[in-house]
């Protein structure tokens, strides 16, 4: 079974903006960004990069996660005027990320190139194996697991940034980890 603790560096973890973790000015940043303040939106970007990337990584391959995450923030910046309640920014941004992932899957071609007969299969790293296993889980489990395992967020951080209750996060992490271990032990990733 892959070592889950080593997964984050292999997937290119982007550290969370720890210096902003306790600032209560988020709603003001959203209001300022809606008024066109790019610096305020940049603070929101730094605060929510790890959350958006976790959501995206839970739905698409690691190669595409950074580009799609960037696209989510670009779209959010362009459509920020559609957000009516600044306090709902985290949930709105998470919805934007999920919708972008769904659109990505719809636009993706369904044909897959098969290797030539007898050609050796390319090696698959443990991190990719774990990510595929996580992506096989339900969305609630995969998003919280990616935030925990890849981005290194604690349960309370996940709850704060997603709007879930701390109990829901604990349940999702526990059940998700149990299912993930079962998938990896079966080799069905």
UniProtKB/TrEMBL annotation:
UniProt entry keywords in alphabetical sequence: DNA-binding, Sigma factor, Transcription, Transcription regulation
GO molecular function: DNA binding; sigma factor activity
Keyword DNA-binding tagged: yes
Residues passing through the membrane, by range: none
Domain RNA polymerase sigma-70 region per the UniProt entry, residue ranges: 44-107
Gene3D superfamilies named in the record: 1.10.1740.10, Winged helix-like DNA-binding domain superfamily/Winged helix DNA-binding domain (1.10.10.10)
Domain spans labelled RNA polymerase sigma factor 70 region 4 type: 128-180
Family note: Belongs to the sigma-70 factor family. ECF subfamily.
Protein name: Putative sigma factor
Organism: Plesiocystis pacifica SIR-1
